Amino acid sequence: MQFVRKGDLLSVARITGSHDNLLQLRLSTGAAASPVVECLPGRRSFNHETLDLNKVLVAVLEGLAAVNQELGTSYSATHIRYVPNDSPPETVYGFLAMSLVRHFATGGTFVEA
């Protein structure tokens, strides 16, 4: 996985064979209102069906809840960004959210963009 920071936006990218996924989060501590969900420009080289925005949102929120319980933290997302024609299934975004928060919370290195 690749971890990148651009300002206060944290990104995680996972590329495994024919599967590519990118998730960007702006994190906050404590409870937050519903996050803003944005679609990044689609990749023309991908022929995947468009991911379901609501399923991506649910997966990210479930991933954040699970990692917060695991780490004893209270991170929430104020912004969620993803590529709408990335590889399915949408549930992978829960795994990506957990990986990103674990990396951030444990002082992992982020490449500056």
Automatic annotation (TrEMBL):
Top-rank taxon of the source lineage equals Bacteria
Look up and give the organism this protein is from.
Rhodanobacter ginsengisoli
Q: What is this protein called?
A: Uncharacterized protein
